[in-house]
């Protein structure tokens, strides 16, 4: 199934603890607000009858969400602050190198849409077959004397200086965000996930998927919808076969022919617009929060 935010590729294992700590800073709400039939009807009423003019893949909630590259910019800055903090306590540890442009996963929210990628890699992530620099290799885990200073466990004085509250990780979080919660914006992320779930089964998207299936059948590829193709068990292991490449390239052609992506994007833009209308204050607050942490991160990263 296509997901709103594909799982992050391991950034040379990004010192799992460091990335997990950042992601854990922003906890999504326990429940996503309801979006009923009346809300969907209101949104669908704003979808253009002719979607041929729909361009791009951008969505309204992008304004308050960190992109995959931006998330890694924050990770990189957070690591830098923690390294400086450790040095202040007489400790040396270097987190795995992070290159946001290189390491960020390419979003496929609406599936495979690039004919060049389809021809070269089938349904696979091109990064899997891209040589990586030595700096991206898995780093050693922090030594035992470093971990408590990163986490703040035990507190006390190390290297002649008091360990800050929450350790060097806590100091980094307070540096990046006034609320000490850097990372993805939780309400916007939950709403983005909700809009994806709502729209994938919205009538215009389902109808476009059926048209895509008929287009695929003309080339003798039997798939009910684009998800069925990308999730074909035959396309999971090893390098892409000639058959997989043929399916993938036809997939992209059919999506373009029946305007499946344009339809889904148009519907999701309308649904996200309605969700933002319902939760405008939260989304505006998170847009400001995102801008602040990203500004601080870029200043740190230089």
Characterization of this structure:
This protein is mainly α and about 300 residues long. It is built from 13 helices and 2 strands. The protein has helices at about 15-25, 35-45, 70-90, 100-105, 115-120, 145-150, 165-175, 185-200, 205-220, 225-230, 240-260, 260-280, 280-300, and strands at about 155-160, 160. The chain has a two-stranded antiparallel sheet with strand order 1-2. Strand 1 (about 155-160) and strand 2 form a beta hairpin. Residues about 1-30 and about 135 have low confidence and may be disordered.
Write the layout of secondary structure elements.
Elements: H1 16-23, H2 37-44, H3 68-88, H4 100-103, H5 115-121, H6 147-151, E1 157-158, E2 161-162, H7 167-176, H8 186-200, H9 203-218, H10 226-230, H11 242-258, H12 260-278, H13 280-301
Antiparallel strand pairs: 1-2
């Amino acid at each position: 199934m296509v997901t709103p935010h594909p799982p992050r590729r391991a950034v040379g294992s990004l010192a799992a603890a460091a990335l997990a700590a950042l992601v854990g800073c922003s906890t999504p709400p326990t429940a996503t607000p309801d979006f009923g039939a009346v809300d969907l009807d209101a949104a669908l009423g704003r979808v253009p009858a002719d979607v041929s003019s729909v361009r791009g893949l951008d969505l309204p909630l992008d304004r308050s969400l960190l992109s995959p590259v931006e998330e890694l910019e924050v990770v990189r800055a957070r690591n830098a602050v923690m390294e400086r903090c450790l040095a202040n306590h007489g400790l040396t540890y270097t987190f795995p190198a992070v290159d946001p442009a290189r390491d960020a996963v390419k979003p496929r929210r609406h599936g495979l849409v690039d004919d060049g990628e389809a021809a070269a890699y089938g349904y696979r992530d091109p990064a899997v077959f891209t040589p990586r620099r030595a700096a991206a290799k898995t780093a050693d885990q922090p030594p035992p004397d470093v971990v408590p200073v990163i986490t703040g466990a035990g507190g006390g004085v190390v290297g002649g200086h008091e360990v800050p509250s929450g350790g060097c990780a806590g100091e980094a979080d307070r540096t990046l965000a006034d609320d000490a919660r850097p990372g993805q914006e939780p309400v916007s992320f939950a709403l983005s996930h909700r809009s994806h779930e709502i729209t994938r089964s919205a009538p215009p998207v389902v109808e476009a998927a059926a048209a895509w299936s008929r287009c695929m059948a003309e080339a003798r590829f039997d798939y009910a919808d684009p998800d069925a193709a990308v999730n074909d068990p035959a396309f999971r292991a090893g390098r892409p076969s000639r058959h997989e490449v043929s399916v993938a390239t036809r997939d992209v052609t059919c999506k373009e022919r029946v305007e499946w992506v344009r339809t889904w994007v148009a519907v999701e833009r309308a649904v996200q617009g309605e969700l933002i209308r319902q939760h405008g204050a939260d989304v505006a607050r998170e847009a400001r929060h995102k801008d602040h942490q990203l500004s601080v991160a870029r200043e740190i990263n230089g």
